[in-house]
Each structure stands twice: as structure tokens, then as C-alpha cells.
Amino acid sequence: MSFVLVAHGTRLPRGVSLIGDLADRVAQTLDRPVHVAFVDVLGPTPAELLSATTDRTAVLVPAFLARGYHVRRDIPAHVADSGHPDVTVTAALGPDPALIRVLVDRLLETGWCPDDSVILGAAGTSDPDAMRDLHTTATGLSAALGSRVELAFAATGEPRVAEAVTAVRARDHRRVVVASYLLSEGLFQDRLRASGADLVTDPLGTHPGITRLISNRFQRAGAEVSGMRGR
């Protein structure tokens, strides 16, 4: 059985390295290889990896924090193009309570205080399902922190993070902290850091909670596949 972690892709070497490091950590946890594929910018693509594998079954975990075009359209299209006869694709990583715990940890690491105003900084999307997922995460983080968390975007959607930082600071006259809801370093994380916020958390990818979440997705899906084959 092949395990494949599917990410978006970036031209920035540090972003590619982070996804590779994350896959290595998951592989160590599971004690088996975890391959990496990308749906955009660089390869190998999921179709290329799947068509090259000799394993009879494969499990793909989308390394995306919400549903969206890449999860609902691109990945299934790659699976179909690969010709592989037996591929299981899990749900996207978010929304999930584990991600809320990681966000809270990142805020604490960065120096967040309960009096601070918090903005959840996401890449953004035009997909209605993905947007609902992002609002679900913002609501969950609000509940965890005991205060309202604004949602803003680095790329697609309004408000943009820099605009939200300015508006929140003018309204609340408190420190503004941007909680990065991004998996890896890259252009969007750079935009969060340039937003004018007092504090910006690191991406989620290297947190142990992300490794556990992805590992659990592989384990559950793999066990289900093995159970079905054993019937």
C-alpha cells in the first residue's frame, strides 16, 4: 500500500522543504514510506506518482486546511488520469479540532495574551465549501480563546489581512496578532508577516499536532482498506 501526501506546491525552496520534512516525520511515526506529490507549480503530480507505483492500493491525504477546488476537482482528476485501480482519498485536514489546538499552541509560542485581538490569516478561496470550512475554524478558535477571532485572507477574498489588521487596531486599540492558518512557508506567509500585525505566528506544518493528524488519517484509511480487502 502506497501512502501519498498531496500538497499545493510552491516555488520557494523553504516551502518545499517543509512539506518534505513533514512527510518524513509522518513516515517516522508510521514506520513506512510517505511519498509527496503536488497539484500545482512543481512535480511530481499525484497522477505521476500513482501511475509509477507497483502497489495494488494507495491512500492519498490532501495536505489542505479546507475543502476547495484542489481537493474536490484536481486530486480526483489526477487519480483518474493515473489509471490506478484502487486509490482512497481522505478528507482535507481541516476543519478539525486538532487544528484548533495547533493554532492555540502557535499563539502561545508567539507571545499572545488574552487581551490581544486575533485575526485568522488564511490563503483564501472562492469556493463556498472551503469558505465555510474557514469560518468553522475561525469560530472554533474564537471558542478556544474566549474572544472573537476575525477571518482575513492573504490572496483570495475580503478582507485582506493587512486591511483587517488596520481596521481591528483602529477599533480595539489593542495589540493585533495574526494566527497563520497556512501549512508551510511561502508567498502567503510572507504576506501575513508584512501585514503590520504586532505578532504573526509561524505556519502550522512543523507542529507535532500536524504530524499526528496526518498520521491518523493514513492509519485510519489504511486500516479501512485492509479491512475491506480481508472480507
Automatic annotation (TrEMBL):
Transmembrane segments: none annotated. CDD domains: CbiX_SirB_C, CbiX_SirB_N. Keywords: Lyase, Metal-binding. It comes from Mycolicibacterium poriferae. GO terms for molecular function: lyase activity; metal ion binding. It holds the Pfam family CbiX. This is Cobalamin biosynthesis protein CbiX.
